[in-house]
């Protein structure tokens, strides 16, 4: 089967945080600066959205609670209720935590749930109109029954996260590092240790920078390349690129597997004018089929007991 790349939604400004919900067979994502959350149903082509009161960085289903989601809202982890309707009202159920209180200009960025239902999400400093970011202003947090814990500091732009249960590994991207980090991962506690690097994008002369990522069932990483017009398939054990999927947009922001067989790669993109206008289809969501691989189910967030 040949690889097919198809645009499936209209453009947004900063598409991010794709999350596939198996129960509803829908893709949820956000547009950060437009303060919107989105739902796309591939079987019907229906794309709905609604607006929140702040910049929203991710949206993830909550375990055992229909229409409930955990979102990153500015610097807050918040539980919301949304029925998925176009323009329908969002109910704020509960605020779980506020982070980076000492740096109020920061905001949350990429967030994802680990195999045990814990939320991992990081922050970043402000971006200048030229596209440059404040250095080392962000952190990476874990939110679970033990509370909200800072597990990494001096982060530039917190981005892609992925776990490999077989390798007992946690992979993580700070975009301005231009590298993929690997940590030893304790599945029982969610603790990470022993940082190393498994791929260096600058050293390998990759155009653009790493953004969001996901992992397939063979343990290979799929990495969105911002300003690279592509998604790269990386083998983290050997530190090599295995494949490249070209996307007709420059600013590729994140990826996740979905579809009934978890063999469709959904790709979010942005249309930011950083000295250069990004015309449609930039900013759209793309659906990639025919890759011959499958992903893991996106895990729902397990609400902390306390």
From TrEMBL:
Substrate binds at residues 107, 109. GO terms for molecular function: calcium ion binding; enzyme regulator activity; gluconolactonase activity. GO terms for cellular component: cytoplasm. Its cofactor is Mn(2+); Mg(2+); Zn(2+); Ca(2+). It is found in: Cytoplasm. Residues 14-270 form the SMP-30/Gluconolactonase/LRE-like region domain. The keyword Metal-binding applies. One of its GO terms (biological process) is L-ascorbic acid biosynthetic process. The keyword Isomerase does not apply. Binds 1 divalent metal cation per subunit. Its EC number is 3.1.1.17. It comes from the Eukaryota. A divalent metal cation binds at residues 16, 159, 211. The active site is at residue 211. Transmembrane segments: none annotated. It catalyses: D-glucono-1,5-lactone + H2O = D-gluconate + H(+). Keywords: Calcium, Cytoplasm, Hydrolase, Metal-binding, Zinc. Pfam families: SGL. Belongs to the SMP-30/CGR1 family. This is Regucalcin. It comes from Papilio xuthus (Asian swallowtail butterfly). The gene is LOC106116565.
């Amino acid at each position: 089967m040949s690889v097919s790349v198809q645009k499936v939604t209209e453009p947004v400004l900063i598409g991010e945080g794709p999350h596939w919900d198996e129960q509803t067979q829908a893709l949820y994502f956000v547009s950060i600066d437009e303060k919107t959350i989105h739902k796309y149903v591939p079987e019907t082509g229906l794309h709905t959205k609604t607006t929140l009161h702040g910049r929203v960085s991710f949206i993830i289903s909550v375990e055992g609670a229909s229409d409930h989601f955990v979102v990153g809202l500015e610097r807050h982890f918040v539980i919301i209720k949304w029925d998925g309707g176009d323009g329908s009202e969002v109910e704020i159920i509960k605020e779980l935590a506020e982070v980076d209180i000492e740096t109020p200009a920061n905001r949350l960025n990429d967030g994802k749930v680990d195999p045990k239902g814990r939320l991992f999400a990081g922050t970043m400093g402000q971006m200048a109109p030229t596209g440059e970011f404040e250095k080392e202003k962000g952190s990476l947090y874990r939110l679970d029954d033990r509370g909200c814990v800072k597990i990494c500091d001096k982060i530039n732009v917190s981005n892609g996260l992925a776990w490999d249960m077989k390798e007992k590994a946690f992979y993580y991207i700070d975009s301005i590092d231009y590298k993929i980090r690997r940590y030893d991962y304790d599945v029982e506690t969610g603790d990470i240790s022993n940082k190393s690097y498994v791929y260096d994008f600058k050293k390998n002369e990759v155009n653009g920078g790493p953004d969001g990522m996901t992992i397939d069932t063979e343990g290979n990483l799929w990495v969105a390349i911002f300003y690279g017009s592509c998604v790269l398939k990386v083998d983290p054990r050997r530190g090599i690129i295995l494949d490249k999927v070209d996307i007709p947009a420059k600013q590729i922001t994140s990826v996740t597997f979905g579809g009934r067989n978890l063999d469709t790669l959904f790709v979010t993109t942005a249309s930011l004018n950083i000295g250069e206008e990004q015309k449609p289809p930039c900013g759209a969501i793309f659906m990639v089929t025919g890759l011959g691989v499958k992903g893991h189910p996106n895990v729902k967030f397990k609400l902390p007991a306390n």
